[in-house]
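Work through what follows:
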Amino acid sequence: MYEFFRKIVCLSMHIKYRIKVIGGDNRPYKNGIKGGYIIACNHQDYGDPPLIAAVNKAHFSFMAKIELFEKNKFFAWLITKCGAFPVVRGAGDGSAIDHAIADLEKNRAFVIFPEGTRSKDGNIGRAKSGIAVIAGKTNAPVLPMCIKYGKKGFRRKVWISVGEMIPAEHIALNSDDRTELRRVSNLIMDNIKMLMDGMSEYGDPLPKQYNPKPEKQAEEESK
C-alpha cells in the first residue's frame, strides 16, 4: 500500500514541477542503501516532503504539525499512508521523537526540516535541537538536501541538491548538554547552507537577510 502511494506522489510531483536534481549520485539508493538514515532539508513549502520522495527511493517517515491531521480526515488518512505522523510544535513532543527513532530502527528514511517551520523568504534559518537529539540517539547518518524553487506558475521549476552523507561518527553526541546539541545542529545546517550556496546560479537571488545588531553592541559602536 505504501509503495503504491509513493509512486502516485512521485508521478504527481513530476507532472506539477520541472525538477532538476543536483548531486544525484549521492542518493543512498544509488549505493544500495534502503533506509536507516535521516534526510535533513531546508523548508519552504508544503510540497517539500513529496518532492523529497519524488527524487529518492525509500520507505519515508516524517513529522507533520498536528493541525494537518485534525482539519480533514481524508487528508489525514492520505498523509499517514505516505509516512507522516503528528507532532505538537513548540511543546517538546517527546512521543514524536520516539516515533522517529522507532521508524529509523525499522530501516526507514526519516525526513526532518531542522528549522522547524517554513522560511518566508527562502533563506535558511537556525536549526532546532530535534535533529541533533534524533541523530544522537539513533546513531544514524544524515543526508543533507536543499530545495530551491523558481517563480510560481505552470510546471514551476525546482532545483533539489543532494549532499554527501554525514557519517554517524561525525554527529555523535558526547552528552545531552546544549553545547553538544548546538554543535551537531550547526554541523548539519552548515551542510545544507553549502548546498544552497551551490545553487546560486539557479532561479532568482535570495533576498539579503536582515541581522540587527544586539543592543549592547549597537550602544558600544555609537560611543
The mean pLDDT is 86. Helices lie at 2-16, 48-55, 67-70, 73-81, 94-105, 130-138, 178-197, 215-222. Residues 137 and 209 are 33 Å apart (CA to CA). The two ends are 67 Å apart (CA to CA).
